[in-house]
Specification:
eight-stranded mixed sheet; single chain; alpha+beta; about 600 residues; seven-stranded mixed sheet
């Protein structure tokens, strides 16, 4: 069930459409967000290719992935938790219409890790995939857990209101619009989200593992969904829990709910969390942490001197798992919820409960899966709780909190044009007195100390963005995060400028077109690499043979691809990029396609 050595899930495969299907719409939630990871998700959703494939290194192919998904993806994240990209570039602009920050009124966290995706095949048949994860949308190397459920619409006249088991998904989707109301989500995406919320009521999800007999979704923290309704805090005979972060009062509650203490119950957590626990709160538990050898393993295999501090990532547990047994029944909870007070009372979280019988789903088997057959194979080690210590907030924690407070302020920006250059005027309302906090547009190196009103002058069109970097400094400690600020008057031509900056010249245009017309994107990439090594040829009005053949094939089997070519040509404002003779060739094929 959870064997770290063998049971590995591929994020790309979980997201990519099944064979014969295309992505129609996808809604994702995460606490922290890496914009480059979101570009990777676009590769999976739009091109059905691996996030780690060779496509990720070529901006032309990334442009196509983003063009295919920009209007089909909504991602909600915690305000102030967007990572600053190591190398910000024009393609990050295309993520603006996907990303929306949520700031909770109670100053708790928006913490669910969740995807709901609708796919459709050529016959119009829809497939719905629900992913419940403990993983954020980042490149973190920690150990996480994920569950994938699929279903199709099944109309049952007896169930006019739909399936009650799918109602929490519908309620959760609708709640996202309320939580993100300060964001300017486009009317089209709002409509798609509400339509998905309605459709999902009639989707019956299937469990394809006979060790589970039932399931329940719990969007904890939204209206009508409290932790008490989940059953997580009911009494039990055995409990095996994995929680990277915790609080003493929550663990004490679990400790007091134990009906028996036959073999001791189990908690796996991070070593850094042990100081939060009182010995009296874990009398019914054995406590385990990951061995230092495993935690430091990723760093030990890094490239060494060339690594930056941020690149040297240690791995630890990040999964949230709770397996409870009582008499002959078992319940397995997975998702985003840590065993902490804030997670249970205040945060927005997402949990999936899987039910089964103890003979199939039990703590003894889970221990074998996680710990291995002997101590040598066990990545975890047992530890003792020796003292209780209220940990003080670090400088980094304080700086992170400061950035979150800035996210909570009402802010807006305006772009102004002057002699082919632009300025950005950024306004914060009721900004408190703070120092050593700086702001800069994501795609510009210009930086200013934050104030009620900040103006950035002499910007190019490609330096305009709704993404801004906030940098907070205290002594030797620096924390940087991206925040999104609604910006008016951004030129309509900016997207065209992005396309021009990526395609650049005739060779880039031919690469893009041949890639666009291909049935297999990776094969198209390899073919383009071969053609590029010999030099692309498109002279005297004669196209390269491979491109001509692809256009013939597309005209016969995929005529909609000519609409995509036309969209691309409309976005290219630099006439020197489109080879001479291509437009005439395109019109000949377009006429032939329209006559069909």
């Amino acid at each position: 069930m959870l064997k770290p050595a063998s049971d590995r899930l591929d994020y790309s495969k979980m997201m990519a459409p099944p064979f014969g299907y295309e992505t129609v719409f996808a809604v994702g939630t995460t606490y922290s967000l890496d914009l480059d990871a979101l570009i990777g998700i676009s590769i999976a959703l739009g091109l059905s290719e691996s996030i780690d494939s060779g496509l990720k290194d070529n901006p032309i192919y990334l442009l196509e992935a983003l063009n295919k998904t920009a209007d089909k993806v909504l991602v909600f994240c915690e305000g102030g938790q967007i990572k600053v990209p190591a190398n910000a570039h024009a393609l990050h602009i295309l993520l603006e219409k996907m990303v929306f920050e949520i700031v909770l009124k109670n100053k708790k966290s928006f913490h669910p890790k969740f995807w709901l995706i609708k796919y459709e095949n050529a016959d119009g048949e829809a497939l719905y995939r629900c992913l419940v994860l403990s993983r954020n949308l980042t490149f973190d190397r920690s150990w996480d857990v994920a569950v994938c459920l699929e279903g199709k619409v099944k109309i049952d006249a007896r169930l006019k209101a739909g399936y009650e088991k799918s109602r929490p998904l519908s309620d959760f989707l609708q709640s996202l619009l309320k939580l993100a109301k300060k964001n300017s989500i486009s009317p089209g995406k709002k409509s798609n989200l509400l339509s998905l919320a309605e459709e999902i009521l009639h989707v019956k999800f299937e469990i394809k593992d006979n060790q589970f007999s039932d399931y329940c979704f719990y969007p904890v923290g939204i209206d009508g969904y409290e932790i008490e309704n989940t059953g997580l805090f009911n009494t039990y005979h055995e409990l095996f829990a994995i929680s990277p972060f915790l609080s003493d009062n929550t663990i004490k509650s679990f400790n007091e709910l134990a009906l028996t203490n036959p073999n001791k119950n189990t908690i796996i957590t991070r070593k850094s969390e042990l100081a939060k626990l009182k010995p009296s709160s874990v009398t019914n538990f054995d406590i385990y942490v990951m061995k230092d050898l495993i935690v430091d393993g990723e760093e030990a295999f890094s490239d060494g001197d060339n690594d930056t501090t941020e690149e040297k990532q240690k791995q630890d547990i990040h999964a949230k798992v709770y397996l409870k047994t009582k008499y002959s029944d078992s319940e397995l909870f997975l998702g985003s919820l840590n065993a902490s007070y804030n997670a249970c009372y205040g945060n927005v979280e997402f949990l999936l409960k899987l039910c089964g019988k103890r003979r199939y789903l039990n703590v003894e088997q889970l221990k074998k899966d996680v710990f291995g057959e002997n101590d040598k194979d066990n990545p975890f080690e047992k530890t003792e709780i020796k003292a209780f210590d209220e940990l003080e907030k670090t400088e980094a924690d304080k700086l992170q909190k400061m950035i979150k407070e800035i996210c909570r302020l009402r802010s807006y920006a305006k772009a102004l044009e002057c002699d082919d250059k632009y300025s950005l005027e950024v306004t914060f309302e009721k900004l408190p007195e703070i120092s050593n906090v700086y702001i800069s547009p994501l795609l510009s190196k210009k930086e200013q100390e934050i104030s009620d009103k900040v103006v950035f002058a002499e910007l190019s069109m490609l330096e305009l963005s709704e993404f801004f970097v906030i940098k907070a400094v205290s002594g030797e400690e620096t924390v940087k995060r991206v925040i999104k600020i609604k910006t008016d008057n951004i030129p309509v031509a900016r997207e065209s400028a992005v396309v021009n900056s990526v395609i650049k010249d005739k060779n880039g245009f031919i690469q893009y077109i041949t890639f666009l017309l291909g049935d297999d994107f990776l094969l198209s990439m390899l073919e383009n690499n071969r053609l590029a090594s010999n030099g692309f040829v498109f002279g005297n009005g004669e196209p390269i043979p491979a491109l001509y053949e692809k256009m013939l094939k597309a005209a016969a089997h995929s005529p909609q691809k000519f609409d995509e070519i036309e969209r691309l040509m409309e976005l290219i404002s630099d006439s020197s990029i489109i080879p001479e003779g291509f437009k005439e060739l395109y019109r000949v094929f377009q006429k032939a396609v329209n006559k069909k």
